[in-house]
Amino acid sequence: MYIGELCKRTGASRKAIYLYEQLGLIPTPPRQGSYRVYSTDMVELVKTIRCAQSLGFKLKELTAHLLNETGNRANPEALITLIERKQKDLRHQLEITQHQLVAIEQLKQDLAQSPDIWTCNR
Fold first, then answer.
1. Which of 17, 73, 92, 104 is the 20 to 30 A CA-CA neighbour of 66?
2. Do residues 10 and 42 both lie within one domain?
3. What three-state secondary structure class fits 106?
4. What ranges in 37-75 are assigned the alpha helix state H?
5. How many domains does the chain have?
């Protein structure tokens, strides 16, 4: 299939697909004349990339985990490791955010009691 069909089936833009190729997230397709010809299994791979992005993964994080050295899909264990690392990072960010929420609530209460004192005890 040509790039237009791949875009239609995945919801990705041409620019995004070119970027995925450039980053090595999807293999460079063979050409038929001046047209790139994508295999049908690229649909699922592009959908996987877009799903991962919607869950907070950066393209850079995905580059070493989606394809192996031969350009074939990497084994699921590589993706599971990446997912576990992302979960750990998100839990850490959540912990930081929870501490910030407590601190900002304390600041709000302090200001309500003493509007002239702007101290932040962080």
1. 92
2. yes
3. helix
4. 41-54, 59-66
5. 2
Tell me how far apart the alpha carbons of residues 47 and 42 are, in angstroms, rounded to a whole number: 8
* CA angle centred on 54, ends 50 and 59, rounded to 5°: 60
Neighbouring-strand partners of residue 36: 31
State residue 65's pLDDT score.
79
Q: Amino acid identity of 73?
A: R
Mean pLDDT for 96-102 is 96
| Dist CA 6 CA 46 (whole Å) | 9
Answer for the pair 122, 103: CB distance below 8 angstroms, yes or no.
yes
End-to-end Cα separation, the chain, in angstroms: 57
Pair 64, 6 in one domain: yes
CATH number of domain containing 41? 1.10.1660.10
DSSP H or E run through 17: helix 14-23
Q: What does the CA dihedral 113, 117, 121, 122 come to, rounded to 10 degrees?
A: 110
